[in-house]
Structure formats: structure tokens, C-alpha cells
Amino acid sequence: MIRAAILTISDRSFRGERPDASGPALAEYCVSQSWKIISSRIVPDEKELIISALQEWVSCNSIDIILTTGGTGFAPRDITPEATLEVVEKLAPGLAEAMRLSSLQKTPHAMLTRGICGIAGRTLIINLPGSPRAAVENLQVITNVLPHAIELLKESPSSEAGHQFDKH
């Protein structure tokens, strides 16, 4: 079972001016995949608060994947990727590339997302868009490889078995 945490980055949701729709949409999708939601939180678009939340969850060693939603666009306060870069030790560009490529099939605005994916310790951090629909659609693109990614991060003995190619 994948243990996940969801971090919504939104000034307006943090201030209570707009309900958080993306965090609950991601949580619903995760539960539908039989993942366990360990924690969720809303923070404003403040780099140090995003870094602090990510570091706290990485250091607890009980979360496999942190999903962030919001703050990945071109707006001046969109700084989620920069905050994430402060926490991750290794990038996982294939995941972000796959999400962008899939999103481009739906909208040319996918080129404007700056979300990244990376590894901090044994935790995978995935930046997702702030739109509930886009966040879930992007996560769906990579869901099938995430169990294997987590096995590799945990150095599970069975992780090598996943390195077989489909023979289609």
C-alpha cells in the first residue's frame, strides 16, 4: 500500500477565501487506488512554508509519496517547483515529462506548467497543477509506475522483477 501526503499550495485556500478542491480530489483518487492518506495540509505560496512541510513529511519516514497541488504556473507567486528543488536530492524528470506530454494532448497550456518530480530520502515528491481535474489527470498518467518506483526507493528485493519489458 502506498502511503501518501497531499500538500495544497494556495494563498486563497489558506486564507479561507476559496475552498480547496484539488487536495480533496487527489485524496479521493488516491483512496480509489487503495493508497493510504497519511496527512494533508494547505499552505500559502510561501517558499519557506512549502519547504518546511515537505521536509517534515520526508523526515517522518512514514510517507512514500508527497503530492503537491498548485503553484506550478507562471504567476509571480508560483514557486512550488523552486521550493521542491530545495528539498529533493535527485530529480525524476521522466515522470514530469510524461505528465506534460499527456496534458499536451488536451491543451497547449500544458507547456506552461513547471512542475517537477524528485526524490528526497526514500520519498517521491510530485508537483501537480492546481486545477482539481488537471491534478488528478496528471497523477493518473503516472499511477501505474508508482508502486514500482516506491519498491525501488525502499530497496525491496522484488523491485528488480519490475524491470521487464512488455512484449507487445
Task: Describe this entry's structure for a reader.
This protein has a six-stranded mixed β-sheet, with helices on both faces. 40% of the residues lie in helices and 19% in strands. The protein has helices at 11-14, 22-32, 47-59, 80-87, 93-104, 132-142, 146-153, and strands at 3-9, 36-43, 65-69, 90-91, 117-120, 123-128. The model has no long low-confidence stretch (mean pLDDT 95).
Tell me briefly what this model is:
By secondary structure, the protein is of the alpha/beta class.
Which key features would you list for this structure?
Molybdenum Cofactor Biosythetic Enzyme, Chain A, single chain, 6 strands, 6-stranded mixed β-sheet, 168 residues, alpha/beta, 7 helices
Helices, by number, come to 7
Structural class: alpha/beta
The CATH H-level superfamily is: MoaB/Mog-like domain
Query: Tell me about the biggest sheet?
Result: 6 strands, mixed
The gross shape turns out to be globular
Oligomer: single chain
Q: Strands across the major sheet, in which order?
A: 2-1-3-6-5-4
Low-confidence stretches: none
Q: What is the count of structural domains?
A: 1
Note the beta-strand portion.
15-25%
Determine and state the CATH class. Alpha Beta
CATH fold naming: Molybdenum Cofactor Biosythetic Enzyme, Chain A
| Span between termini | 28 Å
Mean pLDDT: 95
